[in-house]
Amino acid sequence: MRIVRSVFRGAWVVFLLLAAAVDCLLRWPKPGVEGSEWVHVWCRRIVRAMGVECVVEGELPASGAVVSNHLSYLDILLFGSVRPFVMVAKSEVRGWPLVGWLAARAGTVFVVRGGGPPTYPAVNASMAAAYWTGVPVLFFPEGTTTDGSCVLPFRRGLFHSVLNERVPLQVAGLRYSIAGDGDATVERDVCWWGDALLAPHLFRLLGLKGVRAEVTFAGEVTDRADRFVLSETARERVVEMVEGSGRSAVAAVEVAGEALLVEAT
Length: 265
Known about the structure:
It is a single chain. The protein has helices spanning 2-27, 33-49, 74-82, 99-105, 120-132, 159-164, 186-189, 198-206, 227-243, 260-264; strands at residues 53-57, 65-68, 86-90, 109-111, 137-139, 169-178, 211-220, 251-252. The chain is α/β, with parallel strands linked by helices. The protein has a single domain, classed as Glycerol-3-phosphate (1)-acyltransferase (3-Layer(aba) Sandwich), CATH 3.40.1130.
């Protein structure tokens, strides 16, 4: 049954990506507000097609910067389905077939990982331009994905832009769960980390049932003496959210709507 679900959902996801590409060519959304809103619509459709339930707790960010823990390629789709964001991604994503082109059209800020000081001026300028759009800018300061067992130390580079542009910083915590699907585990089948290959992992993920994502937004981080204090305080807040217990999500992301085929067309 998992194989059937994987094939069916995979076909829908491919169809939606192609439909998004055609829609992008027709609309040609401008990077920034228009691009982020366009991505938001398509992320909602793709998350639905993947069979993932997403629930949200806390007040959605209105502007500024947002940081979160990072568990999978699925994270970007989930955050994009919650509300429009300007995303920050590693530079390699720009070269991904179709996805990289769509991300660029949406105004994604691409960062060279490990680029060092020579890359800082260009990155800070791109981040500043993203903040000026008024759309929240989302980045994952761990710099890589994990299996969810811990939150890695936050890299401090992008926190420069938060302080330089004097924008508010809000934190978010992301957790996944699976309800009643045999031997499937979040660590192996939902989180994508280490040397796991993308295609086999995605095929396995699409075959799961009962996958649930919980996104929690907390208030603004006010301890901002420098980038060290800001990053450490933000990480502590994220750790509290993802490792805490007894939370209950209070707002579900809408999953009903017109038929996918009608929407995509």
